[in-house]
Design goal:
By secondary structure, the chain is α+β, with helices and mostly antiparallel strands. The strands form two sheets. The chain has a four-stranded antiparallel beta sheet with strand order 2-1-6-5, with helices on one face. A two-stranded antiparallel sheet has the order 3-4. A hairpin with a 6-residue loop joins strand 1 and strand 2.
């Protein structure tokens, strides 16, 4: 049974690595971008205190703009900011704010983030 769990975890890690490789690098897809900063406040039902988090993307980063969900019991969850960020770059916008819910299978204590994306151009 332990072997089966380790095998699933290994397969999940390999899949995540392949997704990053398939996404390519920020510099290749968006050569005009110097950096991207996502400031977020992570909120989870049932927990009163919010968690602040900052995620940075540089030209050498993978162009996979997905942030993992921190909620226990969340299956295949996360916050995909790819469409938001690519639309910002296409329109050469420097900031965007909003909120987004986790895409995973909801647990009793599901989560959401309030985000601000800041893009600096070269």
């Amino acid at each position: 049974m332990n072997s089966s769990i380790n095998s699933r975890k290994s397969a999940a890690r390999a899949e995540k690595l392949q997704q990053r490789i398939d996404a390519g690098f920020v510099a290749k897809h968006f050569p005009e971008v110097a950096n991207i900063v996502i400031n977020m406040t992570y909120n989870q039902r049932g927990i009163q205190k919010s968690l602040s988090r900052i995620v940075n993307f540089f030209p050498s980063s993978y162009a996979l703009f997905r942030v993992h969900c921190l909620s226990k019991g969340c299956v295949d969850g996360g916050f995909d900011l790819t469409q938001i960020i690519t639309a910002m770059i296409r329109n050469r916008r420097e900031t965007a704010k909003g909120d987004i819910s986790c895409e995973g299978n909801p647990s009793p204590k599901h989560s959401a983030i309030v985000y601000e994306v800041v893009i600096q151009y070269s």
